[in-house]
Amino acid sequence: MELLIFQTDIKSKKKVKSISPILNGRSDILKWSIDLEDIDNVLRIEATENLLEEEVINLAKVKGFHVKALSD
């Protein structure tokens, strides 16, 4: 299992709902959350080893969100 962490511009529950189907639709994403209380609106993803950071960034882009990988 892999933990991917991203800074996002997802700042409301409505925006979280709009990206939910994309993240939930991926079999390689086991669990995910967005911390709306954090200044960076951190997206944490527990995934299989197959998921690449670039894939998550591109998935978010499709919905019009900016997502940037954060190092641990």
What structural class is derived from the secondary structure elements?
alpha+beta
The shape is globular
- Distance between the ends: 15 Å
| Mean pLDDT over the residues | 96
Number of helices: 2
Helix and strand pattern: EHEEHE
What's the quaternary structure here? single chain
**Beta-strand residue fraction:** 25-35%
Strand order of the largest sheet: 2-3-1-4
Uncertain parts: none
Percentage of residues assigned to helices: 25-40%
What radius of gyration results from the CA coordinates? 11 Å
- How is the biggest beta sheet arranged? 4 strands, antiparallel
Describe this structure in words.
Strand 2 (29-34) and strand 3 form a beta hairpin. 31% of the residues lie in helices and 29% in strands. Strands 2-3-1-4 form a four-stranded antiparallel beta sheet, covered by helices on one side. The protein has 72 residues and is α+β, with helices and mostly antiparallel strands. The chain is built from two helices and four strands. It has helices at 13-24, 53-62; strands spanning 2-8, 29-34, 43-47, 67-69.
